[in-house]
Amino acid sequence: MAKLTLDFEKPILELEQKIEEMRELSRVNGVDLHDEILKFEEKLKKLVKKTYSGLNRWQRVQLARHPDRPYTLDYIDKIFTDFIEIHGDRHFADDKSIIAGFAGIGDFKVVIIGHQKGRNIKENVYRNFGSPHPEGYRKALRAMKLAEKFHKPVISFIDTQGAYPGIGAEERGQAEAIARNLFEMSRLRTPILICVIGEGASGGALGIGVGDRNVVLENTWYSVISPEGCASILYRDAGKANIAAESMKVTAKDMFELGVADELVKEPDGSAHRNPDAMAKKLKEVILRNLNELCAIEIDELVRQRIEKYSRMGSWTEDK
Fold this sequence. Notes:
Elements: H1 10-29, H2 34-53, H3 57-64, H4 72-79, E1 81-85, E2 98-105, E3 108-115, H5 121-126, H6 134-149, E4 154-160, H7 167-171, H8 174-187, E5 192-201, H9 202-206, E6 213-217, E7 221-223, H10 227-234, H11 241-248, H12 252-258, E8 263-265, H13 276-295, H14 299-311
Parallel strand pairs: 3-4, 4-5, 5-6, 5-7, 6-8
Antiparallel strand pairs: 1-2, 2-3
């Protein structure tokens, strides 16, 4: 399957192809193009750095959705050991768009929950495009309660365009399932680390997104609604999503500056999808550092700080 190339990535792809052609010419014809290749490789490095450091908000939204970007299961495979997945919510079914289970990282035994998308149509249908049903949130809550019972930290990976809005999901209590998770996570007596690795939309993200620390990767977005949804409401035109993204301030940098995110993690040059191994290595370091800090806090104080953290978010004025 051909890899997706975003519009602003095309000059990079063209330069990479040119370098590959020069290598092939050198190999087949025995022509010494070593110096020329080095020059083009240096030019490529500069182009990659310049391109990805100057992106606007809509371009970062596109990067957050890139199908080659690492998903929850990719990070589990690259960062954790001995992962044991659990299935089902003990009420209705097993929602494949939510991953939950136990794993090891460093000296820690943890519980992992996270959204999971697919990389092709078949996988996306199986994973419901990363949009959870109520049973997904109830499975996540089941895992979190086990974490509380056995005194294991929770690590939650956020990557969804929102909870599934279908009739069946609403009939089975979508809103109640999300609200219940918000309530339970706010007072869960174990450390919770949130990692936004892609998209973070609305209650679909918040349903497993309340925690002690909120870590966001550089090319991610996090908002009450998608740029397309906002554009459809405000401008009656989803095609103006780029304008909405700028107005909404949806990027990881915006979330950090607004105090919604506690830590902004820089991605490798060219974004996480170009170097998933380097991204995983860096994220592992961030996770371990945060776990060490959170696990050193007495649990009553941790819960108190968590509630206070969310109470401080937002601002308002009152007319007299």
